[in-house]
Design brief:
Elements lengths: L1 H19 L6 E7 L6 H17 L3 E7 L3 H10 L4 E5 L22 H22 L2 E6 L3 E7 L6 H4 L3 E4 L3 H9 L3 E4 L2 H10 L4 E5 H4 L4 H4 L2 E10 L1 E6 H6 L2 H10 L3 H21 L3 E3 L3 H12 L2 H8 L3 H19 L3
Parallel strand pairs: 1-2, 1-3, 6-7, 9-11
Antiparallel strand pairs: 3-10, 4-10, 5-8, 5-9
Length: 336
């Protein structure tokens, strides 16, 4: 009789415990990024997170997670340890080398050409390439133009020749500084800040809206507007997780993504005011003339073919698609 009472008691306890668990437990996912609070890049990420969380209700939620080493973040998304990421193609080049094609130095004529060709000719291919690596490319937007930053006013290619300059893991960064004759030192972002402070390196290349939120803005206060290549931003997700979403939740996720052109405009509209703030605090923004910028471009363009060959894989396919897109854009939109 006592045994029977114990069994009944155990069953009742189990039923009560089961009842205490929500019928649909909320999935909690992480979005990893190096975007710093206080930057428009962080604001765009948080808009996506907040919009998705509001739409998903009790089904799922995304939490922000700062990850300073972007290359590691990409690998964590592939493995499913972090479910989402927001980063640049350059940071993802270790995972998907072909993405570095988008950072080819002096590839674009202007922002209008870049956005149109990216959306219509590059995105369909990069989406396919990322899927093969286990990543769902959710959105391509904007981080901004990469410029050279130095501890001194490095206004010409000759001024950085032989100097120790940090290069990112992106082939485009290596190719650019190699063309300039710099002594390239490859460092992850997390090691760049102490590297500049200690004198291990004397410069790097970074997009302004990211640069100004980091210690580099103090240790390397000269920002030189070479505009040598552009950083698309990519919102990414573990593909297995994306493919396994219920259709209704997937639709909510896609609707929560920011509009690409809206995100690009946020970056463009924010850069100039932030540069003025930086100047007022003692920083230096060196705006180059067309002739000064062409001096950088003339040296960098020589290495374009070498870069595509070095990237390998499907880089020629993507590069050729972009070249075709540029041709079509010129026929459609350039003033005759």
């Amino acid at each position: 009789m006592k045994i029977r009472r114990r069994v009944i008691g155990a069953v009742v306890a189990a039923v009560a415990a089961f009842a205490a668990v929500p019928a649909s437990a909320k999935d909690v996912w992480k979005l990893g990024t190096a975007a710093q609070p206080g930057s428009v890049l962080h604001d765009i990420v948080m808009k996506f997170i907040n919009d998705f969380n509001a739409a998903a209700g009790n089904e799922a939620m995304i939490e922000f997670q700062f990850i300073g080493n972007e290359q590691e973040m990409w690998q964590q998304v592939v493995r499913g340890r972090v479910q989402f990421g927001a980063s640049s193609y350059a940071a993802g080049a270790v995972t998907m080398p072909e993405g570095a094609v988008m950072n080819t130095p002096y590839l674009w004529k202007n922002d209008e050409e870049r956005a149109w060709v990216t959306d219509n000719y590059a995105v369909p291919l990069t989406k396919k390439y990322y899927a093969e690596k286990g990543i769902e490319q959710l959105l391509i937007a904007d981080v901004g133009w990469n410029d050279v930053v130095c501890t001194w006013a490095c206004l010409t290619p000759d001024s950085i020749k032989g100097q120790k300059i940090r290069v990112s893991p992106s082939p485009a960064s290596k190719n650019f500084f190699k063309s300039m004759g710099a002594n390239g030192v490859q460092l992850p972002l997390s090691e760049l800040w102490p590297g500049l402070q200690s004198g291990l390196v004397k410069g790097a290349d970074l997009p302004f809206l990211f640069y100004v939120t980091t210690p580099a803005a103090q240790s390397a206060p000269h920002y030189v507007m070479t505009r040598h290549y552009h950083h698309p931003s990519v919102f990414l997700m573990n593909k297995a997780l994306f493919d396994g979403l219920k259709p209704a939740l997937r639709e909510k996720l896609q609707k929560a993504l920011p509009d690409a052109n809206w995100a690009r405009k946020q970056v463009m509209d924010t850069e100039r005011p932030k540069m003025e703030e930086f100047r007022k605090k003692g920083g230096f923004v060196h705006e180059l003339t067309a002739e000064q910028r062409e001096a950088w471009a003339k040296v960098a363009r020589v290495g374009q073919g070498e870069l595509i060959k070095e990237i390998g894989g499907k880089a020629p396919e993507l590069y050729n698609a972009i070249m075709e897109g540029k041709k079509v854009w010129a026929e459609k939109f350039e003033k005759k």
